[in-house]
Amino acid sequence: xxDNRSFREWSRIFVASSLWVPIIAIVLGLVCGALVxxxxxxxxxxxxxxxxxxVFGSKYDIGETVRTITPLLFTGLSVGFAFRAGLFNIGxxxxxxxxxxGATLIGIKxxxxxxxxxxxxxxxxxxxxxxxxxxxAGYLKSSRGVNEVISCIMLNWIALYLSNYLIRTLVLKPGxxxxxxxxDSASMSIRWLSSFMENARMDWGxxxxxxxxxxxxxxxxxxxxxxxxxxxxxxxxAARFSGxxxxxxxxxxxxxxxMFAGIGGVFEVLGVFHYQVISxxxxxxxxxxxxxxxxxxxxxxxxxxxxxxxGVLTYGSAGMNFxxxxxxxxxxIVIGCIIFFVxxxxxxxxxxxxxxxxxxxxxxxxx
Amino acid sequence: xxxAVPVVELKGxxxxxxxxxxxxxxxxxxxxxxxxxxxxxxxxxxxxxxxxLFGLYQPDEGxxxxxxxxxxxxxxxxxxxxxxxxxxxHFKLVQxxxxxxxxxxxxxxxxxxxxxxxxxxxxxRQLSEQYGLKVDPEVKIEEITVGMxxxxxxxxxxxxxxxxxxxxxxxxxxTVQEIQELIRILRxxxxxxxxxxxxxxxxxxxMEVSDRVTVIRRGKVVDTLxxxxxxxxxxxxxxxxxxxxxxxxxxxxxxxxxxxxxxxLTCQGAGKGKNILEEISMHIRAGEIYGLAGVxxxxxxxxxxxxxxxxxxxxxxxxxxxxxxxxxxxRERMAAGMAQIPEDRQKxxxxxxxxxxxxxxxxxxxxxxxxKRGFLxxxxxRRHAVRLAxxxxxxxxxxxxxxxxxxxxxxxxAIIARExxxxxxxxxxxxxxRGLDIGAIEFVHERLMQAKNEGKAILxxxxxxDELYKLSDRIAVINEGRIMGELEREDVSDEKLGLMMxxxxxxxxxxxxxxxxxxxxx
Lengths: 367, 522
Description:
The structure holds two protein chains of two kinds.
Chain A: H1 4-14, H2 20-39, H3 44-56, H4 59-84, H5 92-109, H6 115-144, H7 148-171, H8 191-196, H9 205-222, H10 224-234, H11 236-241, H12 246-273, H13 285-295, H14 300-324, H15 329-343, H16 345-366
Chain B: E1 8-17, E2 20-30, E3 35-39, H1 46-53, E4 61-66, E5 69-71, H2 76-81, E6 84-87, H3 99-104, E7 110-111, E8 114-115, H4 117-130, H5 146-159, E9 164-168, H6 176-191, E10 195-200, H7 203-209, E11 212-217, E12 220-226, H8 232-240, E13 258-268, E14 275-285, E15 288-293, H9 300-308, E16 315-320, E17 323-324, H10 330-336, E18 338-341, H11 345-349, H12 356-359, H13 378-391, H14 408-421, E19 426-430, H15 438-453, E20 457-461, H16 465-471, E21 474-479, E22 482-488, H17 494-501, H18 512-517
Parallel strand pairs in B: 3-10, 3-11, 6-9, 9-10, 15-20, 15-21, 18-19, 19-20
Antiparallel strand pairs in B: 1-2, 1-4, 4-5, 7-8, 11-12, 13-14, 13-16, 16-17, 21-22
C-alpha cells in the first residue's frame, strides 16, 4: 500500500490516545468563538449563557437536543467504525440519505402490516440500504482498488439525486416538494414521551443509538470479526500474512459503517419528520459525523460524548441567536475551531507539555 | 598523532530517562584519524550516547570536549558547526530529489534567488571523487540502491564539513558486497584524517575495520581495547556479560522421511517476460533444517510467498505430508501445519499497535480455544500470552502494552513464540536473526535447533552464510529464481556456494543437473 504512511499520520490524528487533547481542543474552540464574538461586538458570556439556557431551558428543549444528537451519534459511529478498519468513510452522508429514502419508501408503500412488524421492517430495510451503499464503496475498494474517499464522495451525490428522483416519482405529495407522510404503522415516535416532553419530537432513535454504541464496542473488541477488522486497520500486510482476508474485511467494515449511518437516516424519517423532502443539498450529518468521530477518538464512548457536545452546540445556537442576537453561524466557527485543534494535536501538546514537564520535575524533587 | 589532543572527549556522561539510566558516567575519547567502534547490545545505550554527541539529547551530567575545548552541544546545528556528522541507520533522504539536491539541502549554492544546480552537481562530483564514494549526482534517490543511498548520507555530512563522523549501525541494511564497499570507504575516510565512531553490534566488522573498541553494557563502559589485541569471543563476552558459544553442538539426529515436497514450482513476475520463479524443486525432511542461500533479491521472497500462499502459483505443486496445498489459501496452509517467521517482522509479522497479548494470537485467534461462536476469550488470550512470554523470555512492561514498545529482539521472540507453539510441521524462517544482538541470535538459533530436533521441517532463508553453515543440514542456492544446486553440509564450501550464488550450477545431490541435460520435449 503506497498510501500507508499518510494513513499512519492520519490515524495518529484520529485515534487520539490522550484525553487532554479533546478537552483542551474544546476549551480552545469555545475561546476562539468568544474572540470572534468579541470582535463582532457581541457579549460572549451572554451568548454562551443563552446557548446553555436554550438547551436545558425546558423539557421541550432537552427533548429536541436529544433529537439533534441522535443523527450525529449514528454518523459518528459510522465514520469511527470504518476508520477502525483503516478506511475513511466520508460517505456517511450518502448512506444516511439512502437510509432515509429506504425508510420513506417502505414506510409509505407498505400499508397492510401492524406496527410491531412494519416499524422494525422499515428500520431493517433502511439500515440494509444504507449498508449496501457503504458496501458499494467497500466493494470498489476491495476488488478494484478504488480509493474509498473518492468513491464515497461520488456516491454521496448519487445518493442525493437518486433519493430526490425516487421521492418525486414514487411517493411525492402532490403540489409540494416532499413525500407523503409515512404510515402510522411505521412511525418510530414515542407519543407519550413527546407529550411528557412538551411535544418535543421524541423517538426510539436515541435508544437504538445507545444499543449501536455498545454493539460498536462489542463487535470490535469482543469478537473475532472485530479482531480481524482492527488488525486490517492497523496493519493490513500483517493481517494478510496471518491469513486474514483483507479485502473481505474492508467490504464488511464499509457495510457495517453504512448500516450505522443508514439507521441514522431511518430515524430522521420515522421518528422526526415522518416525511422526506426533495433537497438541493444534503443536511450534512455525514460530514458532522467525521467531526464527531475525530473528536471522540473513534472510541464508542468518545463518539457518544462528542455527539452530545456537537448536538448541544448545534441546538443551543438557536438560543444564542434569539436572546443574545448572536448569529447561529458562530457555533459553526466554534465547532470548526474544535476540529482544527483536535487535528493539530501538536499545537495542543505544545501548550500542555510544559505543564506536564513542570509537574514531572516537581515529582522528581519530591522523590 | 599519539600525543595530540583527542578530537572528541566525553567525560562522565550520564543520561537518565524515566525509570532507566541510559548512560551511566560514560567516558570515551576519539583520536584523529581513528576508527573507534562502539559495541553493545540493543538497548545498551550506544545510540543515546551518540545522540548526546550530536546534540539531540542533553546530558544530565558530564562534559564534552571537542578538540580540547569544552562545548555545550544544544542541537544538531551546533554539532554540525563543530564538524560532527551523523549517518543515521534509517536514512533521512528526500526520495524524489536527486542525489545532489539531497546533499546540498539546506545550504544550497545559489545564483541570485535560484539554486545553482550545476555548481551543486560539480561540488558533489568533486567530493565523491576525493573520497572514492561513487554516486551519480543527477539521479533520484528512489532510483538508487540502499548502499548508494548510504554513500549519499556520508557525502551529506562531508559536504557540511564534517571531520568527525558517527555511523549508526551502518551495515544493518547492506548486502555482503555493499558491506565490503563500506569498509573500504571507512578506511579511506580515516586515511584522509577523518575520525570515525562506528556504532555496531557485529563483531566481525569491528575486527575488520576498527582501531579501538569501546564496549558498553547496560549504560556503562565495560572496557576500551585496541582491536589488534583482542578477539571476537573476548568482545562477545564483554558485551553480553557471559560466555557465548559460536559453535552449535550439532546433534545430528537422523532426519525422518520427506515431509515437504515442492515440485517444479513456477511463478510469473509482475509484468510479462521471464518467470520470477522457475521450476523450483525441493524436498524437506522432517527433523531437517533446509538452508536457502543466495544474494538478496534472487527470488527468495517470492518463493516464501508462494509456499505460504501469499502469491499465486502458475505451475508446479506444494505438498505438505499427504495434502496438496498448491491452491490452498494462507489460512488453509496454516491449518495444515505451516508457520512463518517473516523477514520484515514489523511489517508482516506483527501489528505494532496491538497489545502484546493480541499479537500472540495473530495466527491462532480463530482457534476454538481462544473463543467460541465468534467471540474472543480474553482471559484465555491473556493466559496464553503470559505463558509464551515466560517460556520464550519475551520482555515487556506487561502483556497489555503495545507491541510497538518492545525492543526488536523481544518482538522477534514474540513471533517465534507464537509460531512455534502452534506446533507447525513446516516452519519457514526468513532472516530470523536480522538486526538482533548476539544474545538474541543465540536464543533464536537454539529454538530453531530445538524445533528441528522435535521433528519439524524447517526452511531457513538467510543472506548470512555463517548462519546457514551453523544451522542447516542441507543448503540450496537460489539465483535469479532458479535453484543452482543443493549441497549436504559436509560438501559445503565458501567457494562452491559463491559460484552457485553467482549463477553457476554445481554437481550436487540435486536433480537439477540431470534435468539440465535432458533434451527439451516439444
